[in-house]
Amino acid sequence: MTDHVLTQLADGVLSVSLNRADKKNAITQAMYEALAAATERAQTDPAVRVILFRGEGDAFSAGNDIGDFIALGSQGAGPDDMPVFRFLKALAHLEKPAVAAVRGRAVGIGLTLLLHCDLVVVAEDALLSAPFVNLALAPEAASSLLLPAIVGHPRAFEIFALGEPISGVKAEQWGLANRAVPAAEVDALAFELAGKVAARAPNSIRKTKALMRDAERMWALMLREGEAFGSQMRSPEAMEAFMAFSQKRAPVFATGD
Ligand code: COA
């Protein structure tokens, strides 16, 4: 149990709030467990029509907790030991609609989670980034397929390789979000859209979503990405990147082999 993820069900909308504002909602192992449980509940609980992801504080999420990367990298953990894969599996197979309300930073899985949401509302001044290469990692959450499919290869490669953030306005222009609005309006609009979807015919919505995506292909890709991500996570270059983040300095990468 963690109080770093809060859930609330009202009018068919299960809202899932990341609640670790002092760490910019960086996601720990316990939080992935809670996110997985909420997503699994959304799938199986008939009272849930829509799941909505949001963040408390001024960030959506700073992505995976980097301290956890250090711990897991030194343990040599694989997909079966990592709660993140339970969450990704539930996301890949989720048949009900997912909505995201994004204010502030959305980093790493904070961005790649959005690729699994069916409606995304962002703040105009949100900053979305996927700095996997900056951390000497590799894309995850089927983002190696989904991001280029949405924004095109050159833009996706730049997002992965340079790790620089794009604004909410650009995210809407590039098709990553349905609406970009002032930050103060994000939650209200996301709940409004979620409420509209929750009132639609549930089986029709589910079949529509199922026809639009291939869950098994996505899950297979997530596992394949997990191999590259996992071996990078245990690499000296990634350890250097994680230590540099912890020590608030720039990483220095040795020549690759
Ligand atoms: N893992 C662990 N702790 C994190 C974190 C993460 N992913 N992101 C932020 N934090 C912590 C910071 O270490 C800091 O902790 P401290 O107050 O104990 O020093 C606190 O959250 C606030 O972060 P800070 O960096 O001071 O905020 P900022 O507004 O200057 O910058 C970010 C926000 C998100 C740009 C910056 O924190 C960042 O780059 N985080 C890492 C993002 C990342 O690479 N995630 C992994 C993606 S795969």
Word description of this protein:
This protein has 257 residues and is α/β, with parallel strands linked by helices. The chain has a single domain, classed as 2-enoyl-CoA Hydratase, Chain A, domain 1 (Alpha-Beta Complex), CATH 3.90.226. Helices cover 47% and strands 15% of the residues. It contains 11 helices and 9 strands. The strands form 2 sheets. The chain has a 6-stranded mixed β-sheet, sandwiched between helices. Helix 1 runs parallel beside helix 3. The longest helix is centred in the last third of the chain and has 19 residues. The protein binds coenzyme A. The site of coenzyme A (COA) has 15 residues, from helix 2 and strand 5.
Topology:
Blueprint: E1 5-10, E2 13-18, H1 29-44, E3 50-55, H2 66-75, H3 83-93, E4 98-102, E5 105-107, H4 109-112, E6 119-123, E7 127-129, H5 143-151, H6 153-162, E8 166-167, H7 168-173, E9 179-181, H8 186-199, H9 202-212, H10 215-233, H11 236-246
Parallel strand pairs: 2-3, 3-4, 4-6, 5-7, 6-9
Antiparallel strand pairs: 1-2, 7-8
Helix pairs in contact: 1-3, 2-11, 3-10, 5-6
The structure holds coenzyme A (COA).
Describe what is shown at a glance.
With 257 residues, the protein is of the alpha/beta class.
CATH class: Alpha Beta
Q: Provide the CATH architecture.
A: Alpha-Beta Complex
The number of distinct structural domains comes to 1
Ligands present? coenzyme A
Can you say what the CATH homologous superfamily is? 2-enoyl-CoA Hydratase, Chain A, domain 1
Main-sheet strand order equals 1-2-3-4-6-9
Shape: globular
Radius of gyration, taken over Cα atoms and rounded to an integer in Å? 17 Å
Mean pLDDT: 95
The biggest sheet, with number of strands, parallel, antiparallel or mixed sense and barrel status, is: 6 strands, mixed
User: Low-confidence segments, ≥5 residues, pLDDT <50?
Assistant: none
Number of helices: 11
Q: Approximately what portion of the residues adopt beta-strand conformation?
A: 15-25%
Number of strands: 9
CATH fold category name: 2-enoyl-CoA Hydratase, Chain A, domain 1
Query: Which structural class is indicated by helix and strand composition?
Result: alpha/beta
Distance between the termini: 43 Å
